[in-house]
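Justification of resources, computational component.

The compute hours requested in this renewal are based largely on the per-chain cost of generating structure records like the one below. Each record pairs the submitted sequence with a full structure-token output. That output is archived, and it is also reused by downstream analysis tasks.
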Amino acid sequence: MKTLYLDNAATSFPKPAEMMRAMEKFQRETGANPGRSGHGRSIDAGRVIYETREALARLFNVDDSLRIALTKNSTEAINIALLGALKPGDHVITSAMEHNSVMRPLRFLESRGVELSVVPCSLQGELDPDDIRKAFRKNTKMVVLTHASNVTGTILPVSEVGRIVREKDGVMFCVDAAQTAGALPIDVEQMKIDLLAFTGHKSLFGPQGTGGLYVREGLEKRIAPLMMGGTGSRSEFEEQPDFMPDKFESGTPNTIGFAGLKAGAAFVLEQAIEVIRAREQQLTACFLEQLEALGNDVTVYGPKDSSKQTAVVSFNVKNISPSDAAYHFEENRGILCRPGLHCAPSAHRTLGTFPRGTIRFSFSFFHTREDVDQAAAAVRELLKR
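The structure output for this chain reads:
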């Protein structure tokens, strides 16, 4: 039985062959610690880090690649932004569709005196930018917003919200791009993004344990580091560097992982975001059309419009729990998917699917029309059973 991997919203699989080759090449030929020595291999390792930043900067239209601090995932990047910038008495605005990578640090900060406004979204997970505007207070310091829901794929109006935030003096706009970096066009200048958190192991086709945080020039002065220690720079001082990216990059980096991320980002650049987006949109539209044909026995959540969502589709089958459905898909059809709450209880409350959750199929650039047909056939078979 052929295995069909449909859990790309959790981590993408397969990866481009270039990614594994780049990681193996680094470990076989370099393997040194970047910035911690003066010999040739250390310099080569530093070049890997530099080239990774450069590839990411091209993807996100970042003028200076040193504005990107490399992290182990988007969660770490979000924690740097939120815990480093917000203090008791500050006010922060977010949406009801956020992942726990945003909600948990915000709830922690709320318990420490930060004021939090969670702006409601529609039953499809859509956000009205004007509701963000109405939520501002005199002490608002940040708006943090997911670019697209990991549950429904719903794309939120980042550009519109970015323009609203930029009108407010001293307010930062932080975007969680875990689901969209590599899948949707992102332009930090055009979208007025101050802080962009992203992961490497999803649509950037890098390995797990890689990610980053873009910080608009000057804002690093307002953000405390999450962790401090050796950076390979300014070794004569016992105080943490205050400049990008060193301020947020203490400790030996995951250089072998970033070698893979560089290759993944290069693959995305070579294919072109627009081509990747068009392919994933076609696959999503095809699957949505086949689910719609099943009538009321299958409930699909989100916009149900491939132009308004990523390649993520959440649904439930009548009288069958998400976990039982996922078990059936794997045991009988070789389909690997994600049931449950997807680390996003606030989103499921918005959709009306809490605490049961949903079944989530998430496609990727490497899928085919035949894969989509196989997925839809599995749902039809489950209905017959």
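The chain has a mean pLDDT of 97. The chain is about 40% helix and 15% strand.
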